Amino acid sequence: MQNLREQVAALNDLVAQYRYPEAFDRFYDESVLNYENELPPLVGLAAEREAMTNFLTAVADQPHTAELKNVLVADDVSVSEWLYDFTHKDWGKRRYTQITVQRWKGGRVIHQRHHYATN
């Protein structure tokens, strides 16, 4: 089994390539809670998959950027800083920094919160 730093690096590599389905299969718990800023959570991996499918369908430009800037790993927590740059069919052009905090258990993400500006 990989140590947490290796798992986080592998997960972030998949995210940087927009390979979310593979990331979910390899690293997310079926009961994961996912928060976007202060919104109510998406509960469970099925809800997370649906939301990500909807998002990826709406991202209009190619290529889009998901650039990893920094990573912290301690105990069972990882924090990743991302630069995202894309065009969404409904939201228009977006370029922002996002902080993602993840709690891990048994090699899987069980809780995740994304922090970013919404305006």
TrEMBL record:
<feature type="domain" description="SnoaL-like">
    <location>
        <begin position="19"/>
        <end position="110"/>
    </location>
</feature>
<protein>
    <submittedName>
        <fullName>Nuclear transport factor 2 family protein</fullName>
    </submittedName>
</protein>
<dbReference type="Pfam" id="PF12680">
    <property type="entry name" value="SnoaL_2"/>
</dbReference>
<dbReference type="InterPro" id="IPR032710">
    <property type="entry name" value="NTF2-like_dom_sf"/>
</dbReference>
<dbReference type="InterPro" id="IPR037401">
    <property type="entry name" value="SnoaL-like"/>
</dbReference>
